[in-house]
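Before relying on records like the one below, remember that each one covers exactly one chain. Contacts with other chains, cofactors or solvent are not represented anywhere in the record.
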Amino acid sequence: MELNKANEENLIKTDTVSWRVTSADGSVSHKKGEVLGEHLINVKVNGILVFSLTCTPEHLTELVVGSLYTRRLINHSEDIKRLAFSEDGTVAEAELTRSEEKLSEARELTPLPQVQPSPERIFEMIKKFSDDGKLHMSTGGAHSCYIRYGNGNTDSFEDIGRHNALDKAVGHMLMMKEKPENCMLFTTGRLPQDMVLKVIAAGIPVVITKAVPTTKALLLAEEYGLKMICKAWPDSFSEPVKSSK
């Protein structure tokens, strides 16, 4: 893949604001704090505007690659012949090996390999990722997604949106040539149907979350064999059990 990365140095990730704080006892104080920056990317595929992303302006290359993959527009990173960003990072142009006529033909979802991580491995990940990410600690407004590779190494990504944080992790996985079937994801956000679709499309067989899934997400996970670990905290975690009805 020919790559022209976005220049992220001049993009605002956080900014400082002044707050007027009113307490329940009627007292008023003032303090400064950081808020997340917000950035818009228009993604063109073979010259056609296909989707737009509102995101935190870091790891933009990983975000676009991951989004193309979880939207099932590519089968692997080699399907991207060229990826280039405008100078201000607001336009990403991806040239794919697929023709324009086939862009509407999304890659089919396939069943995932059956993986049963040990409780020790799950608690290991929970402990490792129990602390907040850097952006969330400074702003209170970022979601995190952590990825564990087959060799035990890990990477973490943050974004204003939990879908974007997941796509950044997936994009990095593809760019590092890691095998999805050997990976596990940990997300700080809820798991609705669209998040689970992204995990299944990424080919990653295990997802862990501090939060909870929805009913449709549970059905989708069961259909494709996604191992879902929920309410994952340092002292316990929960797994959905197939209904006997």
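The first strand starts at residue 2 and ends at 4.
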